[in-house]
Amino acid sequence: MSSSSSSSSSSYYPKEVIDPHHHFLDTANQPFQTFMNKFATNVTYLPADYTRDVIEPLAKVGVKMIGTVHVEAMPDNGVQEVAWVEQMMAGNNINYVKGYVASANLTDDTIEQQLQQLVGTTSKLRGIRWILDCVGKFENGSTATHVATTRHDGIDLLKSPRFEQGLALLEKYNLSFDLQCAPIQLVETASTLFAKYPSLQVCIDHLGKPRTILGNDLLDDGSVNPNVTIDEAELKVWREGMTAMAKLPNVHVKLSMLGYTCPGWMRTKQRQEVLKSLVRETIELFGANRCMVAWNWHVNGAVSDADNMSQVGPDAVELLDKFVWFFEGYSDEDKDRLFAGTAKEFYRIG
Predict the structure, then answer these.
(1) Which one of 72, 75, 164, 270 has the fewest beta carbons within 10 angstroms of its own beta carbon?
(2) CB atoms < 10 A from the CB of 216, how many?
(3) Strands (E), 74-155
(4) CB 125 within 8 Å of CB 175
């Protein structure tokens, strides 16, 4: 067990885990990653890196990774990205990627042809994601609007009739939808929209993305932000949206990218306690059978955890340690669901 996690140690480790959310990148060399290369210039993160950073460290503490889901990383072409990962898997005799959540802009005129191409590329296609976090135009990360939405800058596609038309096609191809958006979008649009499609399986990414609820990790002078007062206005919107989404039995949640909610949360016990409370609140809303732990791994621990909002983040085993601590008091059955069972069921792994 990591020495940094002694305050949250537990005798319980899951024997098996599934990581339902990680990314591979090669922005300098892959022609379908020109958009991503603008923001992650010359970044390479490949299957051997993931094995080194996640699978092998977990194995050393007795935890077997029984499967992963590769999630799109803003490619120019979703079909090419999936084909690239499939080629790497085959060429390196690696079989841990058991499913794909591919990129497709559901507002495109050719969306059905794209879905057909994706289904034809791999039998492991499980879902679609198109990043939707939009509260206005992109302002260099100073708001909840994600850089991905510069592809349709300032337009909230969740409110687009064309988006809904594309969304309605997913059931036809037995595909789920990974929903990444801002909390206010859950309130204003998502809870109503997805209620219209009760058979469509939906997974909310990254805890529903409440943002910097204790402020920035560091102050302007570089010192650690001492604030322990929670942004209750931000949490009020998040709670309203998540409560509405939890009422829809087809909606699930990934417990991931915790550093977006609280950048630099590994620095202090107070920050960790805040996140523990939010994770448990999410599980209480949705139930363990609709929540899944995800590592969101790419590049390194800090990037995976905080999406460039902090320079610190847990390594793979430290993150496991924290989740074990978060889940203290839960039944073994619930823990098994959170670490593997829910993801296995949702993404049809195994």
Answers:
(1) 270
(2) 14
(3) 97-103, 125-129
(4) yes
Q: Contact at 8 Å (CB) between 6 and 319? A: no
pLDDT tens figures, 282-311: 999 999 999 999 999 998 888 988 888 889
Q: How far apart are CA 319 and CA 65, in angstroms?
A: 14
Closest CA to 166 of 132, 203, 202, 128: 128
The side-by-side arrangement of strands in the sheet containing 202-204 is 16-22, 64-71, 97-103, 125-129, 176-179, 202-204, 251-255, 291-293
Identify whether the C-beta of residue 134 lies closer than 8 Å to the C-beta of residue 185.
yes
Q: Give the phi and the psi of residue 14 in degrees, each rounded to 5.
A: -70, 145
What pLDDT does 11 receive? 53
Considering the chain, what percentage of its residues have pLDDT values greater than 90? 88
Count of CB atoms situated within 10 Å of the CB of 56: 12
C-alpha span between 217 and 178 (Å, rounded): 28
Averaged pLDDT score across all residues of the chain: 93
Please state, in angstroms and rounded to a whole number, the distance separating the CA atoms of residues 23 and 317.
Answer: 18
165: amino acid identity, one letter: Q
Q: What is the largest CA-CA distance in the chain?
A: 54
Burial 147-167 (b: 16+ CB within 10 A, else e): bbbeeeeeebbbebeebbebb
pLDDT at 4 over 60: no
Cα radius of gyration (the chain) = 19
Burial (CB count <10 Å: 0-12, 13-18, 19+), residue 62 = exposed
Q: What pairing do the DSSP bridges indicate for beta strands 16-22 and 176-179? A: unpaired
Pairing type for strands 176-179 and 125-129 reads: parallel
d(CA 189, CA 198): 15
Q: What is the 3-state secondary structure (H, E, C) of 167-183?
A: HCCHHHHCCEEEECCCH
DSSP-assigned letter for residue 138: -
Angstrom distances, CA of residue 348 to CA of 100, 124, 138, 223, 289 = 11, 9, 35, 45, 14
